[in-house]
Amino acid sequence: MLIVRSLAFKPFDQNGFPFSIPMLQGFEPMEFETPISIFIGENGSGKSTLLESMAYAIGLPTISSQIIESDGSLKAAKALAPYLKLSWGVKSKRGLFFRAEDFLGFVRSIQDVRSAFDKDMQDWEASLEGGGLDRVRAMVTKQKNALVEKYGQDLNAYSHGEGFLKIFESRLTQKGVYILDEPEASLSPLRQLSLISLLMELVKREQAQIFIATHSPIMMGIPGATLYEVRDGKLQRVRYEDTEHYQITKAFLENREAFLRHL
After folding, report:
1. Of the candidates 46, 130, 133, 203, which lies 20 to 30 Å from 263 by C-alpha distance?
2. What does pTM read for this prediction?
3. 237 in any annotated domain
């Protein structure tokens, strides 16, 4: 059973962004058929805004240093979310909302937490002794070790792509709704295949549901996924081979010299 069965919008008469996005003005109710749904389209077509409003309406946890309700960059999603109509198979707020641009803020927040642990420990060592200090030291050590176990010794020590994949490995772990906006950012083609493997295993093992906005023909090729492309201001289901991304990439790989000569 799918967690989110369908998506629609209540009527709205607001002006300005995001309500002025053509895809949203002519939005037709969607019935989801597969655990993985992939949204594609040009920059500014509205695919990311749509997924952000879903994440906001559901109240998904993020990897950002901010909670989703206070993130100023989600102003459009916050405005749009009250008009969203989600039909649930099994209602859930578990999962994850991930945007590529949130990664660096998250790394900084993890480092800040570790620094706070160290500062607190210094304060306790100055004011406690004996058994009380031993108990506090054990508690702080346990919390620091939990961070290391989940995210590694130091996310800054990884390359950007390795850090991305480490986050996915540690957070794609349970049944829930996962909304990923351009997760391929900073991932090499091989790393993208690793991410696809993680996502497919998550669906198989936990019966999770995943929504992805992407520009990557590799991510679009996830077996069994349903693709939705924004064309002429309409969101419509499309075959992988009929996407503009696939066709342009295929033409380029088959004859890159001629392709570039005609640009």
Report:
1. 46
2. 0.79
3. yes
